[in-house]
Amino acid sequence: MRLLRPSGAGPAGGDEDDDAALLRAVARGDSEALGVLYDRHAGWLHARLARRCPDEETVREVLQDTFVTVWRSAGTHRGRGEAGGWLWVIAARRLVDAQRVRARADRAAAPAEPPAPAPSAEERVLAGLEYGEVGAALDRISPELAEVLRATVVDGLTTRETARLLGIPEGTVKTRALRARRELRAALGAGGPYPLGGTA
User: Fold this and answer.
1) What would the pLDDT profile of 12-64 be if each residue is shown by its tens digit?
2) CB 166 within 8 A of CB 82
3) How far apart are CA 119 and CA 111, in angstroms?
4) Of 99, 162, 164, whose CA–CA distance to 127 is shortest?
5) What residues contact 72, with CB distance under 8 A and at least 6 apart?
6) Containing structural domain, residue 173
């Protein structure tokens, strides 16, 4: 399995049917299909990871881990939603894991250091969105709607960026965002306002 260095900052061409076919081929052990998938998606994944993590070595490791995970679990992608969103979920989770491992290693290497600063308000909100009650509710709504909310709210992308990432029209992003908010409120079992941001 030979992976190339990423280039470019946005999702490459090719439609979802192509990506789904590539993932099915990868699930059958086709390393060339993995290479094509990597060439198509590694550039924008690298760019998004680099926005979340300033350490280039960590970003490269996470990108590699992401495609190793794709190699091992391509068969779990059932075509429920866009491959780009599925890849980003894997990459974001690998990044969180890598940052936790690095933080533990840093603490073990320097136990006498003063405690790390408390997480910022933004970090606490994002952690709550990913892992708290809202995160659990996100897992209960339709995957294609959850992908739009994660892109626009958790990742802070605009409608245009989200449309480009997920390979859908901007109008579809707006429609899915509205439906996602309604489903999320229902999943949370309350009708009150939630800080779910905008998609402009």
Assistant:
1) 444 556 888 899 999 999 999 999 999 999 999 999 999 988 899 999 999 99
2) yes
3) 19
4) 99
5) none
6) 117-195
